[in-house]
Amino acid sequence: MEQITLRAETGREIGTRPSRRLRHDGKIPATLYGRGSDPLTVSVDRRELYAALHTAAGLNVLINVQVGKQKHLAVAREVQRHPVRGEIIHLDFIRISMDEAIQAEVAIEFLGTPVGVREDGGIVDTVNTSLMISALPGAVPASIPVEIGEMGVGDTFTVAMLPEIEGVRYLAEPDTPLAVVTLPAAEIAAVSAEERAEGDEAAGVEEGTGVAAAGDAESGSEAGA
Asked: Quick check: pTM over 0.70?
């Protein structure tokens, strides 16, 4: 997997006001920690950070955080965003090693249009669009493509049905649902109403048959008398 170098500066002040000033100057406060080293408070350029996190690997990109003459291989985690603007206001960099597994959240890429949608008017409900995995840093996939074209109405695609990827271990339970093909709510309601109507009609016929039979029996009794 590609590695990106991101320059970081140390010596930033801690607190809300200093962090606000940093962001005003186009920098993002961050913390670098992990692998037995003391946490290091740093700041990174907003534009450089944006470019680093918007490759195909997304948040799982391998970043060489350069502090002075030292480089620390890390991944971005605990990304905090502004509640309205959505821009990053703080994040953590976790030091990693290429020969030690890490946990990462990977997007699931659903491919194809299910049979239940094409032929039966169903809809796809994507229950989970990402999944936690464990893998060596260099083996973390950018995404997990899954083919759902054969799914019919009522079918569920689960974690157990995901493709095997060398060096990747899925952390969710095998029966965890990822996608379900269902009928639209309006169509389900219409089918239910039709079934109730058919049930009422069947019950009416049976009731009427019973009355007629009783009447025939009574007439027969009178004729016999």
From this structure: yes
